[in-house]
Design goal:
alpha/beta; 6-stranded mixed sheet; two-stranded antiparallel ribbon; about 210 residues
């Protein structure tokens, strides 16, 4: 049976969404799988550097590669278990409704749901976008940093320790706005997780 794994990928000439190399097994190549391991900061878990794994996040977000969420969610969940944060709840950074409708899903939510399933913690949708903003990819660095403080609102009050999941962090501004909203809604602590981070040292400013 093991010899049959990846036969479709080899037949169709599929390439790995993480590195572009030919696929010899489903979803991701062996090299990318080996590199996508939990990395820990005091209040954050991520799987790799954005420069290396940005294409992987884009494949999930823009190319409909939903199957990536399961493996990536399992790896993030492993990091959460290692961190022993004692979570009470788990949610995701929301996207604008029209973007979710166009794609058919919110990539951060898919990832968060996979993490929740692995941790046996129910996923809860708690945040909504309140303002329209151009895509972060179309903004300058300064424009990203100036994201409105009122970008998100909580749909209800919460309590306890929460995990906030996003697909990637570049400047970290979107994540920080969402995290602040959860804290203002009553969360005692908010930890974070993502596939890839552009500048891990910037995460030092996130305190629980």
């Amino acid at each position: 049976m093991a010899s049959l794994l990846g036969w479709w990928e080899q037949l169709t000439g599929a390439t790995c969404p993480g590195c572009g190399q030919p696929l010899g097994q489903p979803v991701l190549c062996a090299n990318c799988r080996a590199l996508l391991v939990p990395r820990h900061l005091p209040h954050f878990v991520y799987l790799g550097d954005y420069k290396r794994f940005g294409p992987l996040a884009k494949a999930l977000k823009y190319q409909g590669r939903r199957e990536l969420a399961l493996f990536l969610g399992q790896q993030i969940a492993l990091g959460i278990k290692q961190a022993e944060w004692g979570l009470d709840g788990l949610t995701a950074v929301p996207t604008l409704l029209h973007r979710k409708v166009l794609r058919g899903y919110n990539q951060a939510e898919l990832l968060a749901q996979a993490v929740a399933k692995e941790l046996h913690i129910p996923y809860q949708s708690l945040l909504e976008r309140t303002t329209w903003e151009p895509s972060q990819t179309r903004k300058t660095l300064q424009q990203r940093l100036e994201l409105s403080e009122a970008t998100f609102r909580a749909t209800r009050r919460v309590k306890g320790i929460w995990l906030l999941v996003d697909d990637v962090l570049t400047t970290g501004t979107t994540f920080e706005r969402a995290r602040k909203t959860l804290l203002e809604a009553g969360a005692a602590r908010v930890y974070g997780a993502a596939i890839a981070v552009k500048s891990p040292h910037h995460l030092a400013r996130y305190s629980v």
